[in-house]
Write a structure and sequence with these properties.
Oligomer: single chain
Largest sheet: 8 strands, mixed
Helix content: 25-40%
Number of helices: 5
Radius of gyration: 21 Å
CATH architecture: Roll
Number of strands: 8
CATH topology: Nuclear Transport Factor 2, Chain: A
Number of domains: 1
Length: about 190
């Protein structure tokens, strides 16, 4: 399935360059399928395909203009499994032109005339906090940019508050447990 979209940009200058941008959007291509696979693998804490599809020089942005590295991205994703159980992606909403063609999909790959390829993901991330036992439902989106069949850029946009709250609760619980453990050791040693 393919969707073709034409966008027109307004320009008040006297020059008349081609202001038309044409994209072809697909949901059944290799890039969309790869993203579906690595997202599913992420929910299982499986990063075996990560190394082969992510460029070593990838720039990853989490609600920020400051990039993190490939290793930092992988460590961050793996750390979710330290703080959360039952991690899963659920379809949320789509910002697309033709709902009837992609209503059941949460991935879309766009190839622009200049050759730039992006896979866009709109999602709801669900998990249960291991410390608070709170069910978290967090919507967001990701734009992956591809070059030579590797992800060279990823931009994540989501509300980090639920993740920060769970990490804080876990760290606070560990601080409380540490003094209790020391008392136990002293009591057992006396």
């Amino acid at each position: 399935m393919a969707i073709s979209t034409t966008l027109f940009a307004c320009n008040s200058s006297k020059t008349e360059p081609d202001e038309t941008i044409t994209t072809v959007s697909r949901i059944d291509d290799q890039y969309s399928k790869t993203i579906k696979d690595i997202n599913e693998d992420y929910t299982k804490n499986d990063f075996s395909k990560f190394e082969e599809i992510v460029s070593d020089s990838v720039k990853v942005y989490f609600n920020s203009t400051v990039p993190i590295t490939k290793n930092e991205w992988k460590e961050l994703a793996q750390s979710h499994h330290l703080y959360f159980d039952s991690i899963e992606w659920n379809k949320n909403f789509y910002i697309v032109k033709t709902d009837s063609l992609i209503k059941e999909e949460k991935h879309e790959t766009n190839t622009f005339e200049a050759g730039n390829i992006y896979t866009l993901v709109w999602y709801t991330w669900n998990a249960i906090g291991k410390t608070t036992h709170t069910k978290i439902t967090n919507s967001g989106n990701i734009a992956f940019r591809w070059k030579n069949n590797k992800i060279i850029s990823a931009r994540f946009v989501f509300d980090p508050t639920p993740l920060i709250n769970e990490i804080t609760a876990t760290n606070n619980a560990k601080k409380l447990l540490k003094p209790l453990s020391m008392k136990k050791i002293k009591m057992n040693g006396s």
